[in-house]
Amino acid sequence: MLERPRPRFVEVRRLADGSVAFYFCVPKYYRKLRCEIANEPLGTSYEAACGEDGKGGRAAALNALFDEWNDQRKGEPIEQAKIARYGSMIGCSGNTRPRRLTPRKSRLAHAPTMSASCR
Asked: What is the mean predicted confidence (pLDDT) over 86-104?
């Protein structure tokens, strides 16, 4: 299908229309060890999915997240704030400016963020 180098856990699949797409898929072995990093489509562009040389793109970010999870599973120390924890609220609310709110306004201000994260 494709003879270019691929990062770890990247699969190449042929679509119904004949084009090629890239997917990040964590093996079942790690799923059984409770790895919660989601499998996801990386798109049809090799450069966006894997980078120009096969060592970049979205796959590199997902592999770094996997490496952090795997190091934590093995009990190795992890640098604080290296990567935001997968599924954390840091990504949702990290951009907001702190402001003074009453308890009622605070609840109303956080309602959209919380409802978006619970879908």
From this structure: 55
